[in-house]
Amino acid sequence: MGNEGYLPLFETRRAKGTVLYRVFAASIFAGICLIWVYRLSHIPKAGEDGRYGWIGLLGAEIWFGFYWLLTQASRWNRVYRYTFKDRLSQRYENELPGVDVFVCTADPTIEPPMMVINTVLSVMAYDYPPEKLSVYLSDDGGSELTYYALLEAAEFAKHWIPYCKRYKVEPRSPAAYFVTVSADAIDDDQAKDFWVTKKSYKEMENQIQNAVKLGRISEEVRSKCKGFSQWDPNSSRRDHDTILQILIDGRNPNSRDVEGCVLPTLVYLAREKRPQHHHKFKAGAMNALIRVSSNISNGQVILNVDCDMYSNNSIAIRDVLCFFMDEEEGQEVAFVQFPQNFENITKNDLYSNSLRVIYEVEFHGLDGYGGTLYVGSGCFHRRETLCGRKFIKGSKIDMKWEFSGQREESRIHELEENSRSLASCTFEENTQWGKEMGLKYGCPVEDVITGLSIQCRGWKSVYCNPSRKAFLGVAPTTLTQTLVQHKRWTEGNFQILLSKYSPAWYAHGKISFGLQLGYCCYCFWCSNSLATLFYSIVPSLYLLKGISLFPQVWSPWLIPFAYVIVSKYTRSFVEFLGCGGTILGWWNDQRIWLYKRTSSYLFAFIDTILNSLGYSDTAFVITSKVDDEDVSERYKKEVMEFGDSSPMFTVLATLAILNLYCFLGFLNKAISGEGIAEAYEKMPLQILLCGVLVLLNLPLYQALYLRKDKGKMPSSVAFKSMAFAVSACICFQYLY
Ligand SMILES: *[C@@H]1O[C@H](CO)[C@@H](O)[C@H](O)[C@H]1NC(C)=O
Ligand SMILES: CC(=O)N[C@H]1CO[C@H](CO)[C@@H](O)[C@@H]1O
């Protein structure tokens, strides 16, 4: 094809106001440098008050300044992508590649089968030629209930998919659809089909819920389907043979929906598990899926979604193909990541789970440097790059679809048999799987490190964030869940920094410098904890004692502090509102920022260090998924949940009480002594800092002292933290 008059399949636009932002950032940096100068030039002499506090603050401020520089990488060069799906259809409609969708689930109690099959149905109903679409469910729970739910879903899909296509309904997860669409908004000619479909959905839901309540499959159901014979009575979750079944074969002429159209392929897989073989978590499941799918459908494009993230946009695959199939720039794109959005976020996002700024700002910045992170769910890969292919300039990956003929029913059994061994425990021994092929093992954030290694092989990635969100998931609904989730991420990111693939050195020269900084920004998350802890404890203690650690009101050195504080928080506020947040949401975000740094990141830091010294996992973290009625009531009302005695809460409560004690102690002293105004002239920033910490912690004081419901702080935690905080204050005041 000649390139004259050639129209690209996608377009990249730079963010507006970039120059202005850079000037602004430079001015903040100047302020930071002045702060450093002030700290260095005013260190109290040995024997003077506050020398150690001062030196500690110097360390913390150097760290914050350095970290601030890292965060600039994700704002310096933001880009936005736009696709032209109509051009794609015109040029390639008949040659679109095969797409294999991997849905991963691990536990039928935490991830209820109904949720799983809603995700499966939503991706089966993609607006894409069904013979080219295959959906694989990997069930690491090896649960008969999930399998049964999938059997029912395969039956229901025969009604659901034609219904979706005929009336172009959105979203295509039946649960979400039936909740959002009211019957009054349906046209008359659709109404009959609507009710029939809804009824059959409800029937299916009942059947599945009954089985879930019972906790097992009834004999009657079991006798109807021979697939259940794959569960033998002696097997357990951690010890069973590979269970594999092709529930629908898209290449079998008999697999048709109720209107006689082809259905997408649907496969259930529970890979072999044995106690003596480590299962390697989700990475292991993904790698088994990559191999099994290569034998069954071998789609050129692989989509990975978590079982709690349904597709909210049936044409998202076409967005992705605009990147992969673009003639000019497409050849270097290895994966396309969508943001992870959540439908469960309350108005003011109490736990700051939406990660708004990361997805609406920072990832666009990384995209400007040639690659966003692979963050798991909602990511489309080329099969070959996921399997280890290196980028070579000028060589092309041919994505065109080749029809490989129909498959008779009799062949399916044979296909299942020879696919089984691909999912066995021993298959990967002495191979490159988990190292150079597939997802990498040995890191809690296998996705990020895999994405990084792909980029180190020369590939680019693209961040695709259309205004209509392509995937919607479920966010944690308690503070503990949020903190534990962040602990895992932070720990994983820190391990990447220390690993062979460290973005700080290994990636140097392999990916762009901006992207290196961008990765470091996430990898250094947990080292923030020490500086933050210092900043939220020491100035308050000195305030109590009446020793100033910051410039006084009339000192010119106050100006850089004031400038950095005001401009940094103004930017953060404007940015947050610009991403669709609320004012209260921003305030909540600041609180969670503090909580994450002083608990999740701290524990992640300690755990990583202990691990690398050879101590195995500490028992710091207990995950409990308490999802009773009360908890979700409180979540809806945006009341913070402190109801379990996690050690993280002890740390948070100790800090909160310490600050309150210091603040009240200071007020008391100032009123009875020199007076508030004088104290303020001497220590304006310390008062501000301690005061803001107290304000941020208001919900925590309520949970400690005022609330009566089950979400209040358990008294054991309250007692411990009170004892820690008060004794720390008293020791500091009288001994130091
Ligand atoms: C999900 O899709 C629906 C259309 O079905 C759309 O109205 C809605 O805005 C989407 N949700 C998000 C968060 O973009
Ligand atoms: C799956 C789940 O937890 N859904 C909940 C999300 O949050 C809303 C309230 O905002 C609840 O109504 C849902 O039950």
From TrEMBL:
Positions of Mn(2+) binding: 282, 306
Gene3D superfamilies named in the record: Spore Coat Polysaccharide Biosynthesis Protein SpsA, Chain A (3.90.550.10)
Xref: InterPro entries: Cellulose_synth (IPR005150), Nucleotide-diphossugar_trans (IPR029044)
Catalytic machinery residues: 140, 447
Cellular localisation: Golgi apparatus membrane
Keyword entries, A-Z: Cell wall biogenesis/degradation, Glycosyltransferase, Golgi apparatus, Membrane, Transferase, Transmembrane, Transmembrane helix
Binding, UDP-alpha-D-glucose: 111, 140
GO MF term list: cellulose synthase (UDP-forming) activity
GO (cellular component) term, any one: Golgi membrane
Topology with respect to the bilayer: Multi-pass membrane protein
One GO BP: cell wall organization
Pfam families referenced in this protein's UniProt entry, alphabetically: Cellulose_synt
Main location: Golgi
Residue stretches spanning the membrane: 19-40, 52-70, 646-666, 686-705, 717-735
Similarity-based family: Belongs to the glycosyltransferase 2 family. Plant cellulose synthase-like E subfamily.
Role according to the record: Thought to be a Golgi-localized beta-glycan synthase that polymerize the backbones of noncellulosic polysaccharides (hemicelluloses) of plant cell wall.
Name of the molecule in the record: Cellulose synthase-like protein E1
Lineage: Eukaryota, Viridiplantae, Streptophyta, Embryophyta, Tracheophyta
